[in-house]
Design goal:
Layout lengths: L1 E3 L5 E6 L5 E5 L4 E6 L27 E2 L21 E2 L14 E8 L2 H6 L4 E9 L5 E9 L7 E7 L2 E3 L6 E4 L5 E4 L5 E4 L11 E5 L5 E6 L4 E8 L3 E6 L1 H7 L11 E15 L4 E11 L6
Antiparallel strand pairs: 1-2, 2-3, 3-4, 5-10, 6-7, 7-8, 8-9, 9-20, 10-19, 11-19, 12-16, 13-14, 13-15, 15-18, 16-17, 17-20, 18-19
The structure holds 6-O-phosphono-beta-D-tagatofuranose.
Length: 294
């Protein structure tokens, strides 16, 4: 169902019979809400988010394409999150169990304007699925539609902002002992300790070659947010903490206490597509109403 969201921007609302829901703005194909059966919001959306293109919306799941962060010549995180997407008029085939799922298919095609800043033709199809248990799945299909024989290379992230009760009581499981690039230390390479990750200051790390499953444990809620990913080997973990939070106009000074970004990403090894080739990158978010054992 398409409704008017903030500032009259169109958004799609996906609802399941069990009361779970999700919302995605056509602007940026930006998921801004994912609620459980009790109607609790599981994603963080800043109370100061600015819904005014071309400013990206602060929170939810920004799409970082064709560039993650400043790893290239484009603006921070590329331009997919600053574009108006449309409904896909020729969506990929539906999955066999489609009748239990609520699906919306969006598409972004390179425009003449885009070609001036990134000279490659692409079609980016994004399928957003709300499963029968409230699982939220994002499947990206990016194809090189160029006819000039030129391959292109891109980096990518689903820049997911999770809502947490209290960042100082959050644990992340699945990234122990991995190498990571530390954005707070000139992106130098380090190795993570052997037990789960906890937070007491700014964290901005690109974990490399991570497992397909990462768990974010919210101690107060006795709830685990589970991320499963495919085609996205890396995982970015970010919390701006107090100083950086204050420096962002679209982020409340204290909001860092109630959010954590865990981002399924392809950064260390950017993806190259020859004309006609297609890449798929998927993440599925789900919740478990208990703290998973380490
Ligand atoms: O994903 C982490 C990060 O790259 C941080 O370095 C910080 O810049 C964050 O993204 C937010 O970026 P944005 O452009 O959305 O303000």
């Amino acid at each position: 169902e398409v409704v008017k969201g903030v500032n009259g921007l169109d958004k799609v609302v996906l609802r399941q019979v069990n009361g779970t829901s999700a919302e995605v703005y056509l602007y940026g194909a930006h998921v801004t809400s994912w609620k459980n059966e009790q109607g609790e919001e599981l994603l963080f959306l800043s109370s100061k988010a600015i819904f005014k293109p071309p400013k990206p919306i602060r929170g939810g799941i920004p799409i970082c394409f064709p560039q993650f962060s400043n790893l290239g010549s484009l603006d921070q995180h590329g331009f997919a999150r600053n574009r108006f997407w449309t409904f896909d008029d020729d969506p990929p085939p539906l999955p066999p169990d489609a009748n239990h799922k609520v699906i919306t298919d969006l598409i972004l095609r390179s425009t003449k304007e885009d070609l001036k800043i990134w000279p490659y033709s692409f079609e980016y199809r994004l399928r957003i699925t709300l499963g029968p248990g409230g699982e939220l799945m994002l499947t990206s299909r990016i194809r090189n539609t160029g006819t000039d024989g030129k391959p292109f290379t891109f980096s990518f992230a689903y820049h997911t902002y999770f809502s947490v009760s209290d960042i100082s009581e959050v644990r992340v499981e699945g990234l122990e002992t991995l190498d990571y690039l530390d954005n707070c230390q000139k992106r130098e390479r380090f190795t993570e300790q052997g037990d789960s990750i906890t937070f007491e200051s700014e964290v901005d790390r690109i974990y490399l070659s991570t497992p397909t499953k990462i768990a974010v444990m919210d101690h107060e809620k006795k709830r685990t947010l589970v991320m499963r990913k495919d085609g996205l080997p890396d995982a970015v973990v970010w919390n701006p903490w107090d100083k950086k939070a204050k420096a962002m106009v679209d982020f409340g000074d204290d909001e860092y206490k109630h959010m954590l970004c865990v981002e399924a990403a392809a950064v260390e090894k950017p993806i190259t597509l020859k004309p006609g080739e297609e890449w798929r990158g998927r993440q599925e978010l789900s919740t478990v109403n208990k703290l998973l054992d380490p």
